[in-house]
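Structure tokens please, single chain.
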Amino acid sequence: MRTPLENRPLIALSLAGLPSQARAHLVETGLGPVYDGIAHFAMTPEDLIPVFALAVFAGLRGRDHARRVIFMLPLAWLLAGLLGAAARISQPESLSWAPLLVLGGLVAADVRLPAAATTAIAAAVGLFLGLANGDAMAQAGSGVRGVVGIVGAVFVVTILGAACTVAWQSGWLRIAWRVAGSWIAAVGLLLLGWSLR
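Here you go.
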């Protein structure tokens, strides 16, 4: 057993390693506002997971749905992000569960929708999430360039997710995508429970 005097170097080393500031989401990388936006998107599961779920849903529906989502989601995100950055409009944090639950549920249930409905869902998701991201980038000082970084990352994740899903859905792979959707919906339910407590 160590005595209190023997613990002093360990305590001093631990205290020296403490950061001077702590933030919930990394917004400033030091690489510039575009990279700040990319880092913010990559480190915010409430944004990244719904984008992936929407890409999977569109990919399960086919190439036409995937193409529409690939372009509609970033466009809606950009418009809402610019509005959020300019007007400093944000949404309540307690609604972060909604995109996860809805999109995860659509993937898990393998719901067949017309292409126009899938496009409308992509627009709604882009507007909903883009508004909050625009406000976050304005607060961080990254502004419009941060929003552009986020939109670029959204575009890449949507393309990769939809392309993988379209290419890999034969047999058991389609079931694997649906299982992933059920897990995303479960995360949405968990967040809903936390927001109600």
